[in-house]
């Protein structure tokens, strides 16, 4: 692995972004994070006006007996924003998180992940940040923060009013062509989707996963003509 480190002070002292000590299988993700352009990740980019609510998500990679895996959660069905949708842990920046252009997304990603899943942030190594993206339907400007779960701790839905469940997905399942499809929104919008762990991962989360798999060189040929409606279990 390459060696890069940046340490931030402030309320969450000792927060560091470093690639030191990462498992070799994460090297393609590190390279992708260092080279990918915003428009290569999504056609929805932050408004030039600067409008939008600053937020961050934690894209947390771990490893178990089944190999590399990714942490996801399912949002509570009662939420006003993206109800019932599988997602990365994350949320809006708070004032105490700091500068949205530097330290804020790092602190927000870890804080929100702890609040939503109960994980111990001290067991997470932040190793990269992807370009900021935009979710038009909710007006969020999202900074994806990459993490390595070097010391896993138990996770579960902390507040059922916000989180329905927390689960991990093997990367092998995400790359399996049998689990891939194109989700069709009632509005007509279509985008990549994953049918894993009894869930349909779609929208922003699936789009980011799709691009990570592609630029990390992990993507396997799959049938994008296979359409799945959002109510696929109905």
From TrEMBL:
One Pfam match: NUDIX
InterPro entries per record: CoAse, NUDIX_hydrolase-like_dom_sf, NUDIX_hydrolase_dom
Source domain of life: Bacteria
Keyword Magnesium on entry: yes
Cofactors (names): Mn(2+); Mg(2+)
Transmembrane regions listed in the UniProt entry: none
Protein name: CoA pyrophosphatase
Organism: Streptomyces paludis
């Amino acid at each position: 692995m390459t060696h890069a480190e940046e340490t931030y002070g402030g309320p969450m002292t000792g927060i560091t972004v470093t690639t030191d000590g990462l498992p070799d299988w994460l090297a393609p993700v590190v390279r992708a994070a260092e080279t990918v352009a915003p428009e290569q990740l999504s056609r929805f980019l932050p408004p030039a006006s600067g409008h939008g609510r600053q937020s961050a998500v934690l894209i947390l990679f771990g490893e178990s007996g089944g190999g590399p895996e990714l942490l996801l959660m399912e949002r509570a069905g009662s939420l006003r924003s993206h109800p019932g949708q599988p997602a990365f842990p994350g949320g809006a920046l708070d004032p105490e998180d700091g500068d949205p252009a530097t330290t804020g997304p790092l602190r927000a990603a870890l804080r929100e992940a702890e609040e939503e899943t109960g994980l111990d942030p001290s067991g997470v190594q932040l190793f990269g940040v992807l370009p900021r993206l935009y979710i038009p339907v909710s007006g969020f400007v999202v900074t994806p923060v990459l993490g390595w779960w070097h010391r896993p701790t138990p996770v579960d839905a902390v507040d059922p009013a916000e989180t329905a469940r927390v689960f991990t997905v093997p990367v092998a399942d995400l790359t399996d062509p049998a689990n891939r499809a194109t989700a069709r929104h009632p509005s007509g919008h279509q985008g990549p989707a994953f049918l894993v762990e009894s869930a349909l991962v779609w929208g922003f989360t699936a789009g980011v996963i799709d691009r990570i798999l592609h630029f990390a060189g992990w993507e396997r040929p799959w049938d994008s003509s296979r359409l799945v409606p959002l109510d696929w279990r109905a």
